[in-house]
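Long-time lurker. I teach an intro course on protein structure, and each term I like to show students one example going from raw sequence to a predicted 3D structure in token notation. This year I'd like something fresh instead of my usual example. Would anyone be willing to generate the tokens for the chain below so I can use it in lecture? Attribution to the forum is fine with me.
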Amino acid sequence: MDHVAAGEYWNANAEAWTRLARAGHDVFRDHLNTPAFLAMMPPTEGLRGLDIGCGEGHNTRQVAKRCAKMDAIDISSVFIRHSHAEEVRAPLGITYQVASAVELPFADATFDFATAFMSLMDVPETERVLAEAHRVLRPGGFLQFSILHPCFNPPHRRNCRDEDRITYAVEVGDYFIDARGRIDEWIFATEQQGSRERQPTFRVPRFHRPLHEWFNLLIAAGFTIEAVAEPRPDDETVAQWHRLQEAQVIAYFLHLRVRK
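-- Reply from a regular --
Happy to contribute to a lecture. Here you go:
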């Protein structure tokens, strides 16, 4: 499977994904991943940035509010349509366009920084994506991205819960198995309570890579690793959003910042 075929799956997911995420069902994004990602970012005021794989534009808008001039791309035309509509409704100066992360439509050394929120793991040609990100960054520019933590989200994963449904461990396996292109089917957990039959499941291609492959690909692309984080929700957040409790047991996400 290549980026074009993977993009077709995401375009099919995009309508329902946008509606549910904007209704507050993406709890892991809104209350763990994005806040931790933004807290890790260096100052971007007055800089020009690129959001790679922007989806419906939620995270792009958060970065733009930090006084950065943003461009954003996604391979899904449906996601870009929704992103652009929100920009028209509440302008932040963001320019959106349909494009693939493996063929960025920008000249060399265009951007001061790039972000990729949970998108690089969804492109099979990872080495091409990293090479493109490196190409469009100015010398000294940074790329910061988040992915599912490869150590704790390999092809086999099962939560171990006690009688109160509290996760106390996570069973993982097939870490070194090449299951790239496997299609996972799921929906936001908050939608599973009584309304699942009314919502389509997302069909998401998986392109799992072991941790060492990620680091070696970054080094091969010419990046220097600058910061690494594994966000963990605090007790107050978990008390409000119980679904996040499992992310106190294992690292759900991996955040990396690398510099050209």
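Some talking points for your students: The chain has one domain: 3-148+209-259. Residues 56 and 79 are 5 Å apart (CA to CA).
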